[in-house]
Amino acid sequence: MAANCFATLLAACVPGAACAQDAAQAAQVTVAPVLLAAGSLRPAFGEILAAWRAAGGKEFAAQYGPSGKLRKEIEGGRAVDLFASASPEHTEALARQGLLGESRIFARNALCVVSTPEVGLRADRLLDTLARPSLRLATSTPGSDPMGDYTWQFFRKADAHKPGLYAVFDAKALKLSGAANLDPNSTLPYIAAFADDKADAYIMYCTNAVIVREALPRLDMLRIPDSLNVPSSYGIAARKGSAEGESLLRFVLSPPAQDILRKYGFQ
């Protein structure tokens, strides 16, 4: 980008001191390294990046969104120095294509259900409650967001306990997140779903559930029982040859950053 600006100025300028000064300034233009990360990582990575800068690290341009969508953008040529995905499937695929370096597991998560008090959510009757015809069940979007993929795996586990539930859940699920990148200035879709009265229950990462309950304390939160839950792993990989990406990756794997992740509910 800096090189293009430099070439453009050289082509457009009339030789002289002013032109030389403008060209020199253009040559010094730098572009911040790019971090692309799963939307569920936004709160934790905001604090991780602050700690990274406090330790002398370089400012990153961060963009958060559904991991599957971000992977497709990287495959399409989008610039990235570090990619943190809610599933190692995406970082591993990009590594195989030579678009990223080695994929590493750096965090783990699980599924929870957040609901309004009127739902009366309880672990011993979770499936029957979620299957109520009148209950508006929100989810993320499978295919573009691993949280949606894990939710549909939960639906299949539920079907093994009670045949027919997969079809019920698949038909009624309201895909209210995971189809688009997150606007850093917008309300999280998991919070907006309840604030705008669009859902009675929402299946999400337990880390997101903690954030939603902090914003809306009246809501109930239930970790899906282990027999039905779908634990998830997060993958991270830097672009080959990106010194800044590799440095931030090492920081994410370090004890200070791992402590921050645990603070936000990651395992």
From TrEMBL:
Keyword annotations for this protein, in alphabetical order, are:
Metal-binding, Signal
Q: Does the keyword Signal apply?
A: yes
- Taking the record's annotation, the residue ranges forming a coiled coil are none
What InterPro entries does the annotation carry? ModA, ModA/WtpA
* Spans through the membrane: none
Q: Where is the signal peptide?
A: 1-20
Q: Does this UniProt record's set of keywords contain Metal-binding?
A: yes
PANTHER family to which the protein is assigned, alphabetical: MOLYBDATE-BINDING PERIPLASMIC PROTEIN, SULFATE-BINDING PROTEIN
Q: What protein family does this chain belong to? A: Belongs to the bacterial solute-binding protein ModA family.
**NCBIfam families associated with the record:** modA
Task: Please state what the protein is called.
Answer: Molybdate ABC transporter substrate-binding protein
What organism is this sequence from?
Answer: Massilia haematophila
Instruction: Give the classification, highest ranks.
Output: Bacteria, Pseudomonadati, Pseudomonadota, Betaproteobacteria, Burkholderiales
- Encoding gene per record: modA
